[in-house]
Amino acid sequence: MTATRPLLRRDLRRASILDGAATAFADAGFAATSMESIAASAGVSKLIVYRHFDSKEDLYRSVIEQVAGRLAAVFADAISHGDPSEAPARAFLAVAREDPEGFALLWRHSAREPQFAEHVERFRTLAVSYAQARLAPLLPDESLHTWAAETIVDVLVASVLHWLDHDDGGRDDAFVASAGRSMRALVEAWAG
Description:
The protein is mainly alpha-helical. The chain contains 9 helices and no strands. The radius of gyration is 19 Å and the shape is elongated.
């Protein structure tokens, strides 16, 4: 049991640094964020930050990879256990509520940071591929498959980000239901 305590402390400290970094990066952007501000946001010294991460780029990349990994896991679980029309919105919103700054960093900020744009694009491509597979049987016009999948993903991400900006979480179930209805309505309109 004593051997696991240092590992647990290390994991908790690493998680704290990632949370602090997400907050600092979301507030000021990559270029304007210093390792000192990340350390202050995490409540640790700069030395502790460097014990866990080699550089500011490594830390930024770790934040967005953590959020993307969590989103992939929650999404897979939601799809296998939930209403297929609401599962994407439920999964995206759940991860966004767990880590609002990290979610915003992944979807809103990373695309504008040249050295990280490829990470968000890689994850977006996976989401679009999933949407294409789900939409293809519903849309008779094959030329719409890619466009519709990209649009669905973009609408979902923008909707979740705006919901985070405007609601405290008390009406998340209503948002998920509404988003599900909206996605169904878009697909029905495109299926014509």
